[in-house]
Amino acid sequence: MISKHKSAVYMDGKSLLEEKIKKKNRRKDYLGTYLFLTPALLLLFTFSFVPIIYVVYLSFHRVRLPDDPIFIGIGNYAQLMGDSVFWRSMGNTLIYTLGSMSLGLFAGLCVAVLLNRAFKGKRFFKVFYFLPSVTSDVVSAMIFLWIFDHNLGILNYLLPKVGLVEPPAWLLDPFWAMFILIFVGSWRGAAYNIPIFLAGLEGVPKSYYEAAEIDGANGWHKFWRITIPSIMPISVYCMVMSIIASFQVVAIVDVLTDGGPDNSTLVALKYVWQQSFQFNYVGYGATMSLFIFPFLLVMTWLNLKLSKRSG
Predict the structure, then answer these.
(1) What is the domain range of residue 23?
(2) CATH code: domain of residue 257
(3) Which residues cross the membrane (predicted)?
């Protein structure tokens, strides 16, 4: 009995020692992990969280450089609520977002479906269609400015030769100016979406289509019942990225319309830039930035919520 008791005590002591060694090794692993993460966390804190905190600070002050900030409480927020130009810029941004996102997703999916077929030169087209997304916004906008400029644009030079004597001043008309911005945005968006959609299409198992063919499904049924549900997560990703990119658009607006005519193409970020750097109302620009961020967050959340329901 005594030997059994000693053996049990020895086993308990051994297990406790092993547990202590495991905890010590676990702490070492955690320490190593945190040491590796520290540089990235410091960069994130310095260049993300600190600027956000500073923007919050600026939103409660009247700031006109190089003067010192003057605390005004919620004065900037009260001004924002009554700023009709800001709300119009938000409306323009929503129109641009819905238009460019819809066209960009549709065109990207259509081209990806075509590229998913086997044909010669497929690799060349994969690279060729991706080029607009890696081209500078300014360069892309300049290309379309040379096309649609009412004085020097190539389109208004060619249209009279085919019978249209008085072509429209594209970028001076509110409807056509917004349409051209949406077209440019969707053109760039489609270029970004094509390789993503193509990767998703190539990942759909062929057995799904073969089973559907056995059941008598045609091409349209296979597309709606197999392809679309299979690439839904990728579609949601492209939609979210399109929304984020649309709220960041400013370069193509600068080059093509500068927010005109009559603020009809003035988007939110362009208005923030005007107030902050052109008119030197830095505190008010910070307030608008803070309002746009949660609005963008809500839009993204709704998009994800709707995609889960449809899935």
Answers:
(1) 2-48
(2) 1.10.3720.10
(3) 30-57, 94-115, 127-148, 168-187, 231-253, 281-304
118 residue type, one letter = A
Q: Dihedral sign, CA of 59, 60, 62, 66?
A: negative
The residue length of the chain stands at 311
Residues 110 and 34 in one domain: no
Q: Does this model's pTM top 0.85?
A: no
Number of other residues whose CB lies within 10 A of the CB of residue 273: 18
Is pLDDT above 80 for 11?
A: no
Torsion of CA 273, 278, 279, 283, to 10 degrees: 40
Tell me the longest C-alpha to C-alpha distance in the chain: 113
11 and 95 share one domain:
no
Query: Which phi-psi region, left, alpha or beta, contains residue 63 (left: φ > 0; alpha: ψ -120 to 50)?
Result: beta
- My answer on whether 97 and 234 are in the same domain is yes
* DSSP-derived 3-state class of residue 116: coil
Which residues does residue 71 pair with via DSSP β-bridges, in sequence order? 61
User: Measured in whole angstroms, how far is the alpha carbon of residue 262 from the centre of its chain?
Assistant: 27
Q: Are the C-beta atoms of residues 156 and 150 closer than 8 Å to each other?
A: yes
Quick: pLDDT tens for 157-205: 888 888 877 888 899 999 999 999 999 999 999 988 988 898 888 888 8
Q: Alpha-carbon Rg of the chain, whole angstroms?
A: 28
The CA distance from 247 to 244, in Å, is 5
> In angstroms, rounded to a whole number, what is the distance separating the alpha carbons of residues 87 and 167?
32
CA–CA separation, 215 and 222 (whole Å): 11
Question: Quick check: is 53 in a domain?
Answer: no
Q: Residue with structure tokens 């905890």?
A: 23
Instruction: Give me 255's structure tokens.
Output: 């080059």
Cα–Cα distance measured from residue 304 to residue 115, given in angstroms and rounded to the nearest whole number = 28
Lookup: tokens for 45: 């804190």
Residue type, 188: R
